[in-house]
Amino acid sequence: MPVDFLSDEQAARFGRFSGDPLQTDLERFFYLDDADRELIAKRRGDHNRLGFAVQVGTVRFLGSFLADPLDVPWTVVDYLAAQLGISDPSAVKRYTVRVETANTHAREIRTAYGYRECIGAVPGELAEFVYSRAWTHGEGPTVLFEHATAWLRRERVLLPGVTTLVRVVQSSREAAQGRMHSMLAAAAQQVDAGLPATLLGLLKKDHGQQVSRLEALRAGPTRVSGPELEKALHRVEAVRTLGAGAVDMSEVPAARVRELARYGLGAKAQSLRRLAEPRRSATLVATVAALEAAAVDDALDLFDLLMTTKVLGPSRRAAAAERLAKMPELEQASSILARVGQTLLRVLGESGEQVDVVAAWAALEQVAARDRIADAVAKVGELVPDQRGAAGAMREQMARRFRTVAPFLRLLSTTIPWGAIPVGQQVLDALSGLDGLRGRRRVRREEVDEALVPPAWHGVVFEAAGESEVNRDAWVVCVLEQLRASLRRRDVFALTSTRWSDPRAQLLTGSAWDTAREQALRSLSLEGPVSEHLAGKVEVLDAAWRGLSDSIGQAGPEASLRLVEDGNGRVKLSVTPLDALVIPESLTNLRAQVAGMLPRVDLPEILLEVHSWTGFLHSYTHASGAGARMGDLPLSVAAVLTAQACNVGLTPVVAEGHPALTRDRLGHVEANYVRAETHTLANGRLIEAQSGVPIIASWGGGLLASVDGLRFVVPVRTINAAPNPKYFGRGRGLTWFNAVNDQVSGIGAVVVPGTARDSLYVLDTMLNLDGGPKPEMVASDTASYSDMVFGIFTLLGYKFSPRIADLSDQRLWRATAPGQDPGDYGVLNDIARHKIRLDKISAHWDDMTRVAASLATGTVRAYDVLRTLTRDNGSPSPLGSAILEYGRMAKTLHLLALVDPSDETYRRAINTQLTVQESRHRLARAIFHGRRGQVYQRYREGQEDQLGALGLVLNAVVLWNTRYTDAAIAALREAGAEISENDIARLSPLGNQHINTLGRYAFTAPTPDGLRPLRKQLQPEG
Asked: What is the DSSP letter of 310?
């Protein structure tokens, strides 16, 4: 029987083993320390000692004793027998011959280890814990049930019956929800007694409309145009007018408010109408408050994209085209002037002190007539840009696009809740006056802030209109360009926003920084004095320089690294590319054998079989937080994941004869269960399971990862895509930045429009991981590095290791501690000529560590922080300059290791990991085959959810391939094959020749016990 939110399967697994424990679980719960061994040694006979040990590990792992103590996976028995030196683990089978022995042992274990029943004050303590967890976190009942079970284990309380624990979770969660709903509804009443009724009115349809007012407000912009931005700003105005943003929700944990808002933003109006009070009012308040931030974000996203694609880009191209069109005239006039100049120089040279003007003109007229020379001078003066150059010509073109920006001028200044630091305030002041200039032909010079007009704009704004007036169109577009630049630097920001807010306000500060400082800095190894920290860094860098100098001296003339002159009297490094690794015949044969043994399988079967191992599909919970009230939910989720990952829509996975696969059911599951948060939870289970497969030990420990982007064309109208002809042709697209570790698990991903600069997103990807150990080394491609990114990565405890294509042209740096003599690096002294400013680092160390702690604790996005550290012209701020100096030490260490002629291991490790990433992207393309591999989601959330499904399915496929590859290796060894560990290390779980991803999809139950049979091929195919 189902137990409310638990499925039959979950209820049956409660307090029992479900498959083999992971290696990490064996080490955590079944390792026997000295006290354990002393207690076990009191038993007589191997069967009693081993049986006693099994019960000790079982109660630690499960939190309860089993009715049959030997109802455990045999891997547990083997693991314990090895520790006890028992050569025949099967002796344990005699342990249950006498039932009273096992019962007596269980009572002794309870007494010795302090286990107690869930009676007396314990249920109250448990309820208090669950209530606190439910109040502070936006978690569903299944997750709370798991936390409650973990609490019982930690407190050494034997698990009660499953129904008892379910009741505790339900009652505690309902109490926490009731409190939250009441508080939010009351807060809304305090702001405006009529606010709940106003919000309830959003659930009605206006006359002639197909959807409710709320659903209409949820629809964001999809086109890039001035009128569309005006419409987006009207949406902001409409949402802000409702007043939900004024409700004080600070007393309710932010995670709980987000949970309510997530449900409200995804639910249909009729579902929200059916909610009882005060839950309905609370949900609407949270929803509309979140919608206000989303509307502001959408409007500013659209403004940034419009300025880029409709003003800046076309103007740049028009200026270039205009210059190209003038080129023939310019060439002709320049040719005349060139010959005139040569003649004049000759005449001046021959004339000595006295120049005969008449003779000079006579000589010049031999080249061209006097009027033609004058015309050529005038033509060159007309066609050659003045001191403004091409930038000024571009601004002339921008000023002609006033009509593009005119529709939204008033709303842009009055609708967005603007904020600014002092340097950005003058931009906002200028913005507020723009709408008043519409309809006016003349604008006086004293009406504008000349400090906001950069040199490239000066001639366009002022000179063309005379001394006392300005060019209105040019001034308006100039201010909007400054606004865009200030927004990107976050000198100007939106007070109600997620993506365009002020990152400085999100940094740890005041009491929050005082509270978090010690623990955060200790976790990052930054807690000591800056002088000691930098002294250690300088010592390591000095040793690396000396080590490379020694390696060059020992390597000889045939080494991969040589010192050469660059033609300007400078010495630089010349690095020979790595040779491709030889693929031995044994590896070729092994790859063929393993590939031939993997069972042929359909993609849905992989998902269901992996679920039978890991239970990852149980991570998909309803957006409202309520438990699932439908059978076979994992089957429905698997169908939706298949449809999204293969990009084929629901039609191929619908089976109207199956209750779990009807179109209505799958549509409901897709809308309410499959989203970014549940993908993260499910991925965590897959990553953990991948790390426990034995073959993984040959591939890596999860401490090396790489981040790279996979590009997708987005052919539908959307603002969350951007152009790049190299990747998207004439259309627009997005980039899926994803991280994969050396265990071939995808551990995190972010979606960004277009092909934005990689380095701004690599760190965000690494700071939002789904699971697995924190990588120590992060590889990336050439486009993803900068000195500042090196600095941020190093502060956060990562070794940033990008593959750099132009090694010979890189600048390397040395550091000298105060009071010390510069190091002598022999032949490298000329290369090590650039000096790191340690004083800059010391002066800004407190702020640097505060930024690092804020990033590590997740209070601010890395993308936003990096924006604030760089000025619009690309130069760093003072704090950014200090981080840049710090990063140069790490970058130099990285480069010195890359070019070391005596050890190619480091460079090969980076290349190998990036090859793994490229292979994963190839597999992603093969799975995401529908609709020509293009993303048809219009909104950011839909894009993130679909590509999240792709990442999850990739991990499921990798886990399935890994387990069967491990099984194939075991079968080959049992058949007598000798297999090299070096060859195993070069196997990959990223093949897909045996996997069917095409056609209509069948969802069949997985093999009930163990793995499905391998194909009968133990020899390489001919």
From this structure: I
Tell me the C-alpha to C-alpha distance, in Å, between residue 254 and each of 64, 128, 939: 36, 20, 24
Residue 903 has pLDDT above 70, yes or no: yes
Contact status, residue 139 vs residue 133, Cβ threshold 8 Å: yes
Indicate if the pLDDT at residue 913 is higher than 90: yes
H or E segment at 221? none
List Cβ neighbours of 752 (8 Å cut-off, separation of 6 or more).
734, 735, 737, 761
Identify whether the C-beta of residue 682 lies closer than 8 Å to the C-beta of residue 619.
yes
The whole-number pLDDT of residue 1022 equals 39
Is residue 1006 predicted with pLDDT exceeding 70? Answer: no
Other C-beta atoms closer than 10 Å to the C-beta of 812 total: 20
Spatial CB neighbours of 940, under 8 Å, sequence gap ≥ 6: 720, 751
Q: What is the mean pLDDT of residues 254-263?
A: 86
Helices 905-927, 878-899: crossing angle, 10 deg rounding: 100
pLDDT tens-digit profile of 43-84? 999 999 999 999 999 999 999 999 999 999 999 999 999 999
Looking at residue 872, its amino acid is D
**587's tokens:** 């590896």
Contact in structure between 699 and 985 (CB atoms under 8 Å):
yes
Residues paired with 707 in a beta bridge: 739, 780
- Kind of pairing, strands 492-494 and 722-723? unpaired
Q: Which two tokens stand for residue 913?
A: 């990991």
Residue 304 sits at φ, ψ, to 5 deg, of -60, -45
User: Is the Cβ–Cβ distance between 798 and 780 less than 8 Å?
Assistant: no
8 A C-beta contact, residue 838 and residue 817: yes
Dihedral sign for Cα 911, 916, 917, 922, please.
positive
Look at residues 94, 121, 117 and name the one whose alpha carbon lies nearest to residue 107. Answer: 117
Query: How do beta strands 995-996 and 601-602 pair?
Result: parallel
SS (H, E, C) 127-142: HHHHHHHHHHCCCCHH
Cα separation values, 699 from 23, 613, 782, 792, 989, Å: 16, 21, 24, 28, 11
3-class secondary-structure state, position 27: helix
**In this model, does residue 298 exceed pLDDT 60?**
yes
| pLDDT given at position 800 | 93
Q: 515-546 pLDDT, tens per residue?
A: 888 888 988 999 889 999 999 999 999 999 99
The per-residue pLDDT of the chain, averaged, comes to 88
Mean pLDDT, rounded, for 803-819: 86
Using CA atoms of 447, 450, 452, 457 in order, give the dihedral in degrees to the nearest 10. 110
Asked whether the predicted pLDDT for residue 374 surpasses 50, the reply is: yes
Q: Is the pLDDT of residue 143 over 90?
A: no
pLDDT score of 874: 66
Q: Indicate whether 411 pLDDT > 90.
A: yes
* 167/171 Cα distance (integer angstroms): 6
> In whole angstroms, how large is the CA radius of gyration of the chain?
34
**Residue 671 is encoded by which pair of tokens?**
């809308």
Helix axes of 162-191 and 141-154: crossing angle, nearest 10 degrees: 120
CB 869 within 8 A of CB 879: yes
Q: What is the dihedral of CA 920, 925, 926, 932, to 10 degrees?
A: 180
Terminal C-alpha separation, the chain = 53
Measured between alpha carbons, how far is 704 from 721 in angstroms, rounded to an integer? 31
Give, for 514, the enclosing helix (H) or strand (E).
Answer: helix 510-523
Nearest to 638 by CA among 599, 612, 664: 612
Judged on CB neighbours under 10 Å (0-12, 13-18, 19+), 844 is buried
Q: Are 445 and 467 in contact (CB under 8 A)?
A: yes
647 DSSP 8-state letter: T
Residue 349 phi, psi dihedral angles, 5° rounding: -65, -35
Task: Concatenate the DSSP letters of all residues of 751-774 into one string.
Answer: EEETT--THHHHHHHHTS--SSPP
3-class DSSP state for residue 99?
helix
Across the range 175-202, mean pLDDT stands at 93
